[in-house]
Amino acid sequence: MTRPLHVVAVSGGLQRSSRAASLCQHLMQLIGEQLACHPHLVELGQVAPHLAGATWRNQLPASVERELVAVEQADVLVVATPVYRGSYTGLFKHFFDFIDQDALVDTPILLAATGGSERHSLVIDHQLRPLFSFFQARTLPLGVYATDSDFHDGRVHNEALLQRSALAVQRSLPLLELAARTDRDARHTAAVA
């Protein structure tokens, strides 16, 4: 029996209308067109003031704790970060430093990034995959990289990016359908045991 997936997207963008958030929303929409889901977007730019200065999770306010729990309990994660100096942003890493190291075991994760040019496109394989490998998550086969020119009026508009995004979701469907058929807590307990 399938159930709606809890799809949580984490945008590392710092501005309210960030390209990373737009890419997250686009990818969640594509997943929602294929499978029943409850989407939730975490915008790190909005929680940034509450993360500053916190070194331990118990120092964070309840609003940030709710977002961390949403990520830890997600059936599927979509993560997108702007490329900053050749990697994900420090805020993005700081947020994931608070995630329990066993919480994402076997969680399917669709990786995405945005950057000023194509020269940063390998950030997905060189930076994001290793980060989520630490969590023993299942990074999905295709990542999605977008440049500034792929957006118009804050929305994805480049045809090649639209096709790549659709293909990334299409190839992810077997894992996403499996997640919809199994209880996340049971899957997580079996993987950690």
Characterization of the model:
The protein has 193 residues and is of the alpha/beta class. The chain has a single domain (5-192), classed as Flavodoxin domain (Rossmann fold, 3-Layer(aba) Sandwich). Helix content is 45%, strand content 20%. It has 7 helices and 8 strands, in the order βαβααβαβαββββαα. It has helices spanning 19-34, 44-51, 62-72, 90-97, 123-134, 159-181, 184-192, and strands at residues 5-11, 37-43, 76-82, 108-115, 138-139, 144-147, 151-152, 155-156. Strands 1, 2, 3, 4, 5 and 6 form a 6-stranded parallel β-sheet that branches. β4, α5 (123-134) and β5 (138-139) form a beta-alpha-beta unit. α1 packs across α6. The protein is globular, with a radius of gyration of 16 Å. The two termini are 25 Å apart.
Give the CATH level 1 class: Alpha Beta
In total, how many beta strands? 8
Summarize the amount of helix as a percent range: 40-55%
Going by CATH, the homologous superfamily would be Flavodoxin domain
Question: Strand content of the residues, in percent?
Answer: 15-25%
- Measured between the Cα atoms of the first and last residue, the distance is 25 Å
How many domains make up the coordinates? 1
Order of helices and strands: EHEHHEHEHEEEEHH
Total count of helical runs of at least 4 residues: 7
Please give the largest β-sheet: 6 strands, parallel
- Return the average pLDDT rounded to an integer: 90
- Cα Rg: 16 Å
Shape: globular
By CATH, the topology is Rossmann fold
Low-confidence stretches: none
Specify the structural class: alpha/beta
For the record, the CATH architecture stands as 3-Layer(aba) Sandwich
